[in-house]
UniProtKB/TrEMBL annotation:
It comes from the Bacteria. Belongs to the PhzF family. It comes from Streptomyces cellostaticus. GO terms for cellular component: cytoplasm. One of its GO terms (molecular function) is isomerase activity. It holds the Pfam family PhzC-PhzF. The active site is at 45. InterPro entries: Phenazine_PhzF-like. The keyword Isomerase applies. This is Oxidoreductase.
Amino acid sequence: MRIRIVDAFTDRPFAGNPAGVLLLDDAFPDDDRLQNIALEVNHAETAFAHRLPEGGEADWALRWFTPVTEVAMCGHATLATAHVLHTTGAHEGPVRFATRSGVLVATPGADGSITLDFPTAPLTRVEIPAGVGKALSAEPVVAYDTGPNVGDLLVELADEQTVLGLTPDHKALGAHSSRGIIATARAEDPSLGYDYVSRCFFPNVGIDEDPVTGSAHTALAPHWSARLGRDDLTGLQASRRSGLVRTGLRGERTLLTGRAVTVIEGELLA
């Protein structure tokens, strides 16, 4: 079985967010095997996909696993999977994935990018939880619950430099949401090519800091579109690897556009 490591939301190797991608010959094996493979790959997510019969609502079934658990939604591993399908010739044109978050569509662009059609996260403003500022190392300005699919607490901070300078207590952050914390601020200089900046910390699924998180941008898009008055924006996720996500708010759906690069291809022997 071929296994690939793909850097997503970047146009160059060793940036963006790496994901393992395995295209299966038939149905998913048992969950323990999927989890063990994801643990061996040891990236934020490993995606497993298999082709579905023609004529249905989706073309491929898709699941995502972190090193410790299965997740309900993952943007970068979906982008990585679509990239593998297109670059290997396994699928042409838009691909429909059957997932725990419904049918998600990935559409290739003429410029080599891929656009994902994901559900928009429903944001609910909440009181800033006691202790989250200390755990994050900066006091939030405002906080939002992002709903069950994303499962994060989104917090806006005072400015971009505050986001960049965070030194969080990852263990303490785990008490404040089911998955983790999205920290964000408005870009100081939009002429640099992005409108807002973010960092994402997901200790409850075994990821202290995720390099670039597509699913988080389904919450960042409605937040910043409302604040900035535009539906189409670009977000910089400012991890050590970093990556850009172009977001397009379309009501109950959010479009996430980025590129991907395959960096490793090998054979799974076990």
